[in-house]
Design brief:
Layout (H helix, E strand, L loop, with lengths): L11 E6 L5 H13 L3 E6 L9 H8 L17 H7 L2 E7 L1 H8 L6 H8 L4 E5 L3 H5 L1 H11 L3 E3 L3 E4 L5 E5 L3 H13 L8 E6 L4 E2 L5 E2 L6 H12 L3 E6 L11 E4 L3 H15 L3 E5 L6 E5 L4 E4 L6 E3 L9 H4 L7 E3 L3 H4 L6 E8 L2 H14 L4 E6 L10 E8 L3 E8 H12 L3
Parallel strand pairs: 1-2, 1-3, 3-4, 4-5, 8-11, 8-15, 11-12, 15-18, 18-19
Antiparallel strand pairs: 6-7, 9-10, 13-14, 16-17, 19-20, 20-21
Helix pairs in contact: 1-2, 1-8, 3-5, 4-7, 9-14
């Protein structure tokens, strides 16, 4: 997915790095932040400098590193002014030793002093040997941090530096990046709101080795779901195809046919309409009930209009079919017409090639399919599919708004601005 260069524009990020072999990933993290327009400062523990020099981080961030030697009280380069400057404080990697000290409010190095001084939510990305991470005391420390304004970005299972395979590897930089975006870009309107997004072209079986489908790549739906994730929504992406580099923490359901998509959409809509949203408590494991906001459905999937009337098992042999093969098709079910839209805001997507009748056809969907808005996309030819940019006309009963051609993630944020007004 193309990440826009202004995604984190004017955002200030303080990155803390500790003594862990995973520190090499922090270099990539700084690069991701700066490429997205953020201003980044780094605070290092003395142990971290055994792995990477401060000069490396200074070169990537364009800012002086804060450590024991560089702290100054004659200007703003100290643990008080720097934490006041930051919009978000992230510790990645966070060693087991640092996690233990954080949980007990110990501040015996510059990074820990910053953590104690920073009053807002902090992100922490642990990195440790499996046994060190799973140690009951470490697990207790992580639970303590969860109620002390820290959010833990989960570790991953893979081969560790000690050559064993297990849980404890720091999350990939891109995953930490998306968690950072979610903290910095969240919006009260979308936060904890249940949203369903469908995407990709449905795949309809002819036999066990052949199918009919369309050119839809699923990139627009993936971008829209990612924008919703960044805004804090409880988003569920149901698609046949997904773009690369999506947030791992975002809920995704991989489907194939129209029938399978309809089943999952119907269940998701039913769940989304429930009166309250439950989330498990990190401490008691009991659900916390929150007031539920009106859910949204973005129907961006390209659902086949016709499907094979008689799908076959096995592989149809050309020797049996002969010189010609007449494929009998029947009209497909219409997911947008079929689902119960009461109590949920629904935005449909319409792809058209006839420029003269495109808006008329898209506007007709408002009534014939009972949706609240339609996103019209005018295509030139089959090469219009799978591109990184798009242009949309957002059409409602009150009028329409032209959204200019930009990368699909930026366009998704514009769509969400318009959807808020429904």
């Amino acid at each position: 997915m193309l990440i826009p260069s202004n995604l984190l524009q004017n955002k200030k990020i303080l990155l803390g790095v500790t003594g862990s072999i995973a520190i090499y990933k922090s270099l990539e993290l700084v690069r991701l932040f700066t490429k997205a327009g953020a201003d980044v400062k780094v605070v290092m523990s003395e142990a971290a400098k055994k792995f990477v020099t401060p000069l490396t981080f200074e070169t990537l961030s364009g800012n002086k590193v804060l450590d024991e030697q560089s702290e100054s009280w004659s200007d703003a380069h100290n643990h008080i002014k720097t934490t006041q400057w930051a919009d978000l404080f992230i510790i990645a990697p966070a060693s087991a030793n640092t996690i233990a000290k954080l949980a007990n409010a110990i501040a015996d190095n510059m990074l820990l002093q910053c953590a104690l001084a920073y009053p807002h939510k902090k992100l922490i990305a642990p990195s440790a040997n499996t046994h060190m991470l799973q140690n009951p005391i470490t697990q207790g420390n992580l639970k303590m941090l969860a109620i002390a304004n820290y959010e833990v970005v989960a570790t991953q299972t893979k081969e560790l530096a000690c050559k064993t395979v297990g849980d404890g590897a720091m999350a990939e930089p891109l995953e930490i990046f998306w968690h950072t975006c979610r903290e910095l870009l969240r919006e009260s309107f979308w936060e904890d709101r249940r949203v369903i997004v469908t995407g990709g072209g449905t795949i309809e079986k002819i036999d066990d080795v052949r199918y009919i489908s369309n050119y839809s790549s699923g990139k627009m739906a993936s971008a829209l779901a990612t924008a919703l994730f960044c805004k804090g929504a409880d988003v569920n992406l149901i698609a046949t195809r997904f773009d690369t580099d999506l947030p791992n923490a975002m809920h995704k359901i991989d489907v194939t046919s129209t029938e399978e998509m309809l089943d999952f959409v119907t269940d998701s809509v039913r769940i989304a309409k429930k009166g309250k949203l439950s989330k498990p408590s990190l401490i008691t494991d009991k659900p916390i009930e929150l007031i539920q906001k009106e859910p949204f459905l973005f129907m961006a999937a390209a659902v086949s209009d016709y499907i094979p009337a008689f799908a076959q098992s096995g592989k149809l042999k050309k020797e049996m079919l002969g010189e010609s093969f007449d494929l009998h098709l029947k009209q497909n079910i219409d997911i947008l017409k079929t689902i119960n839209k009461e109590g949920i805001k629904v935005i449909g997507f319409k792809a058209e090639m006839d420029k003269e009748k495109a808006k008329e056809n898209a506007t007709a969907q408002l009534t014939c399919k009972g949706v609240d808005a339609v996103c019209l996309n005018i295509l030139a030819d089959e090469k219009s599919f799978g591109t990184d940019e798009n242009a949309i006309e957002f059409i409602t009963h009150q009028g329409s708004t032209l959204l200019p051609q930009v990368d699909k993630l930026s366009l998704s944020f514009e769509i969400l601005k318009n959807a808020k007004e429904l």
